[in-house]
Design a protein that fits this description.
The protein is 29% helix and 8% strand. The chain is α+β, with helices and mostly antiparallel strands. The strands form 2 sheets. Strands 1-2 form a two-stranded parallel ribbon. A two-stranded antiparallel sheet has the order 3-4.
C-alpha cells in the first residue's frame, strides 16, 4: 500500500481538521498536502457563504436494539440543507460527511 500524502478532494479549510487522523504521515516526517491545481477549483455553491460551517442542536441520539445510533432530527436538518442548496444551485455536487459508523 502507499501512504496518502496528497489529497485532491477537500477544500483547504478541511485539511487541518483531518490532519490529526494521518498519524503515519507525521511519523514519516510529513503532513498531508493538497493538490492545489485541483483543490483551488473547488468552490462552494454561490448560495453558500463558506464551504465549511458548524451547526448544533440539542436533540439526543436514539439507540436501537441492535446498538445502532440514529438521530432523525439531524437527518431532517441535513436533508433540508441539501434540498435548499439544490433549489438555489441545481448544478452543484454535494458531499455529506457523518461521524457515525455505518
Amino acid at each position: 500500500y502507499e501512504l496518502l500524502m496528497k489529497q485532491s478532494r477537500m477544500n483547504e479549510l478541511f485539511v487541518p481538521l483531518f490532519s490529526k487522523f494521518y498519524k503515519e504521515q507525521k511519523a514519516e516526517g510529513g503532513d498531508i498536502q493538497s493538490n492545489t491545481d485541483i483543490v483551488e477549483k473547488l468552490k462552494p455553491p454561490p448560495c453558500m457563504v463558506s464551504p465549511l460551517f458548524w451547526w448544533s442542536h440539542k436533540e439526543r441520539e436514539q439507540v436501537q436494539g441492535s446498538g445502532k445510533v440514529t438521530n432523525q432530527h439531524e437527518v431532517k436538518m441535513v436533508l433540508a440543507l441539501a434540498l435548499w442548496i439544490l433549489r438555489n444551485d441545481k448544478d452543484t455536487d454535494i458531499a455529506i460527511l457523518s461521524p457515525y459508523r455505518a
